[in-house]
Design brief:
With 460 residues, this protein is of the alpha+beta class. The protein is 20% helix and 20% strand. The protein has a nine-stranded mixed sheet, with helices on both faces. The protein has a five-stranded antiparallel sheet with strand order 1-4-3-2-7. Strands 5-6 form a two-stranded antiparallel ribbon. Helix 9 packs across helix 10. The chain is globular and about 55 Å long.
């Protein structure tokens, strides 16, 4: 039956060649060898950046270090067996020192040290011109290679923990998914999304957002879900709205927009636009169907999305959750938001970006004051963060590519709120300016279930 399930998923996605496409592979593909990519906060990086997004260098022990163009560290290679066994030392409260150096493993008898990596790049050497980016050219494998019998990799076993609300939570490393193809992970993501436990963007990649959503799904639905049982997942999908991939025909309204040519970074330039609309048809459709834009293109190679009448493959996420949410819990450590109903039952869970060290989120309990859909945004450098060289109050027009996306849920602590984002693929992977940032679709769903006066509790 497993082979039949795989064939069905492959047929839905169009071609087996789809499985190996794309320049930025999933972290689970990268983790099939002896090393994984560890982010500066000690978590497993749940994606592999594209080569043009990073500068790759080597430390004195020959391990790769991935840096952003501005020199900020993105991740470092660490031995997979040590990472998944929980052997990640803490330095100044984290896996990496965030001061002048970023340190990982100290020197040990096994020669697995990374040494000290100065922020200015000292001790690092450039990637040789003929050196491939991680695993480029290797035999592709879009499956995870984790051991479900290892309690440190199993969110329902010894490696699990509970958050402040007593909700059973997964470990930070990854979901207990083994040898799952990209179509199978897509099916799982769709089921999680329909079941009230958002995985963020649906992209066919196993990672931290999938792990968190899987654990929360069981809390929302009151039963466990085996992520490796594809037959069961497909049957659940059939009963909850149909198979994970469906056909969609692009309409004249889709092609017409309105669209804008580009979204500038500078807020003063944003303020000059009539609206911060989508820039392309693919960006709009990807958001409508809860997808990563690159994944939408990957599913439809060679398609011109600007032509009305064109039939494409899209994810079938199902209708949004409805009902009344009476309490919200924002878990800073898990980067996840939990929404509860009047009876205390968990209604929905969402991956989130919550605060940063420079602009931390509030602590304790606040209340929802008001909810605005398709909001404009007023930038005031005296009370907001500093953006570029802007030193004047700016009124930025609404739109899905605005600073707060499609929803602004104002909280009783001034300038803080729950809102959407123009970059859904970064949710749960980046930090915010102190607010709670969700994907636009998750923020919209939550906003429609909230009302003024609902409490929002921030927990560490």
């Amino acid at each position: 039956m497993r082979r039949a399930s795989n064939r069905l998923l492959l047929a839905l996605l169009g071609s087996a060649a789809f499985l190996v496409a794309g320049s930025a592979g999933a972290q689970d593909s990268y983790a099939r060898g002896d090393v994984v990519l560890m982010a500066p906060d000690g978590s497993l990086l749940d994606y592999v950046p594209a080569p043009d997004e990073v500068v790759v260098r080597y430390n004195r022990k020959g391990q790769r270090v991935l840096l952003a163009p501005d020199g900020q560290m993105i991740a470092i290679e660490v031995p997979a067996d040590r990472y998944f066994n929980g052997d990640v030392p803490q330095v100044d409260g984290g896996a990496f020192d965030q001061g002048s150096t970023a340190s990982a493993y100290p020197e040990d008898d096994n020669g697995l040290a990374t040494g000290s990596i100065p922020r200015d790049g000292g001790g690092l050497r450039d990637l040789p011109d003929d050196q491939a980016f991680p695993d480029q050219g290797a035999a592709p494998d879009d499956s995870a290679s984790l051991d479900p019998n290892n309690p440190d990799q199993n969110p329902y076993g010894a490696g699990s923990g509970q958050n402040a609300e007593g909700l059973q939570m997964p470990p930070e490393a990854a979901a207990p998914i083994t040898t799952k193809s990209k179509p199978e992970i897509t099916a799982l993501q769709v089921l999680l999304d329909r079941g009230g436990s958002s995985p963020g963007v649906i992209d066919g990649k196993n990672g931290a957002n999938v792990a968190k959503a899987l654990a929360a799904w069981e809390q929302v639905n009151g039963e466990k879900l085996d992520p490796n049982n594809t037959d069961d997942i497909l049957e659940r999908l059939r009963l909850s709205g149909g198979l994970p991939i469906t056909a969609y025909t692009i309409t004249p309204a889709d092609a017409a927009g309105p669209y804008v040519a580009a979204i500038p970074e500078d807020y003063s330039q944003k303020a000059l636009l009539p609206g911060l609309n989508y820039t392309t048809v693919t960006e709009m459709l990807a958001e409508r169907f809860h997808m990563d834009e690159a994944y939408l293109k990957e599913l439809n190679p060679g398609v011109d999305f600007t032509i009305p009448g064109t039939t494409i493959k899209v994810v079938n996420p199902g209708p949004p959750k409805t009902g009344a949410v009476t309490r919200v819990l924002a878990d800073k450590a898990r980067k996840q938001v939990f929404a509860f109903g009047a009876n205390g039952q968990l209604v929905a869970a969402y991956p989130a970006s919550i605060g940063s060290s420079d602009t931390p989120s509030p602590s304790g309990i606040v209340q929802v004051q008001r909810i605005a859909f398709n909001p404009g945004y007023t930038y005031n450098p005296k009370i907001n963060f500093q953006q570029g060289a802007n030193n004047k109050v700016l009124t930025i027009p609404p739109g899905p590519n605005g600073p707060v996306g499609t929803v602004w849920i104002a909280l009783s602590k001034p300038t803080y709120g729950i809102h959407g984002t123009p970059e859904p693929s970064k949710i749960g992977k980046t930090q915010s300016h102190g607010c709670i940032r969700l994907t636009n679709w998750d923020a919209t769903e939550l906003g429609k279930m909230l009302s003024p006066g609902v409490t929002v509790e921030f927990v560490e």
